[in-house]
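User: two proteins, same treatment. go.

Assistant:
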Amino acid sequence: MPHLEGHAFALLWYAGLAAAFQSSQTNCAANPAYVGDHIVPLCAVNFPEKSSTTYASWVVHFYAGNCRHCRELAVTLQKAVSAPAMLKKGVKVGAVDCHDASNANLCRGHKVWKFPVLMILSSGSRYTGPLDTAAMVDWMSEVSEPGLLPPMLQKMSVCPAFHLYEEPQLAREFLMAHNIYRCAAGIDMLEWDMTAFQTARSYAQKAPTDRLAHSKPSERRGKHGATFGENVAIGEHLWPGQVVARWYDEIRNTQGGKFRPNRAGLGHYTQIVWRKTRKVGCSFGQNRRVAICHYDPAGNERGKHLSQVAPPLPGFFGREGQERCGAVVEEIGAP
């Protein structure tokens, strides 16, 4: 019996040692100034992995413990994540101390060279707004819902009654072209809207073919009086994928798809990937020399671009990203 008791003691001792070792590997140092009820300490051993189902839900504050600006941001962040809208959405927020030597590679890997940095992991978007709770909540609204499937696995929003629409093939092609890009950005798919289609068709029949010209706001109003957003294209023998790809190509004037303030010539691209837009209707006119799309709600709202323009997710840039979401846009509807 003493021999067996010795083995039992040894097993318990090893189990306790293993538990202590595991605990030391999963717990991160917590600086009270940066963590709280809704902000958890993160470090190399528990940092969210890209393969996890919650990765798209994370916002991370990279800070240095002795940084005054970091502490000021932390105060605003704590208020923002405690807002009912953020709690309901399930946004996960963590904080990493980049002055801790064990986190050096983690911070460098996310290209954090100065502090503070508040980052949405899935998009790499960094907060550049004021230390204002409402502004920070608005920015964090672009965080994906917890457990969101990768974009290529999301089900396209397709109306089951295309055959009831006027110009059903055109509707399907324009809608698919838009939703490929929105899929690549990980945001909600658009639906086809008959009122937007009718106002787009009405203007396309009289729009000039020698220059880009927008319709009057009064000519593109929805059922409830709101003005639709509008994209316009001109050319010869246009087709849906070509038109939408041309608009989206303005992404070349951005930094990886992120909006650049005071940069002209981005309005078509930003409307396509405007987060709050939910519906679209498009039409051709003048023997396919003019293409018009109307959007509801309208995008390009002043002062909202930094939070509303959705860049492509990592791995979903260019042709490869389009193929992962279902098709190469420029080929949709090609003659």
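Protein 2:
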Amino acid sequence: MTDQRFTQITNFWSDVFEKDGRQFSRVAIESTYPLSYQLSSSRANVKMLIKKARANINYSKTEVYDGLISELTVRQNEAENVTTEIALDYDAPFTVNFSEGIPARTFIVFDRMRLYDIFSPLKIVIDPGHGGDDKGGFGPVDLLEKNIALILAEQTKLYLDKYGAQTFLTRESDQKIPLRDRFNFALSNKADLFISLHTHYDKNPEVKGLFVGYNPAAASSEKLAWLIAVEVARKTKRDIREIRRDSHLTALKKIPGVIIEPVTISNYVEEGLLRNPHLYEKVALGIFNGIKGLFDG
């Protein structure tokens, strides 16, 4: 593009969208005029030098972690140019599109096909903890762990299903299921992974943070636990309280399995976070990214 007018960069954002049944990551740069730019790319990194431009936004690094894009950076250069940099988890093909209007938008669109290659071979059992008259933990106001666990499981299933994973829920409604039946369900379905979702409860209302337990009988469970813990903590901005072996999960035999408690429901602040639907999306995406890390080379 050759428009030489001085351009103000007014916004910079990313999302994931669907087209023709496939998912794409998109970075949008909003500006007062069409951009004049130079584009370069190397492995897992795309850089756009925008000429004769000012960034009317904070110059900073923004974490994304959507399974493909990890970080976005905007930097104002001394020569009245703006550098935008997109860091990727892996190299991916992309296109650049432009949309006229107020504001003008330049889109860098990345193909997420590799995620289908990772997830489509997998069978994953997702286990919403508790249910029925087993209410689990409870918050200082009125939330119940059994209900939170089911919402978390449904959101996690939604993310995994988008990329072709074969997912199974141990319960789909408010019903009590014995623990051994949950494990047997995973074994009978020859699951590749078992993901159990809970919240932590503690008599001390000051206790907070994320816990992940793992099956010590499966070689890759500990790695999976760490990957998920880091990704969920990164997305939710919560601290990792503990990662440790969970002997109950040995009933899964060689199936890698984890139990995830993303927050402590008995903590007043973290119970409040559970009232925001975006938290469930962030937890699910963190789990998704953790699983991707285990199977992506």
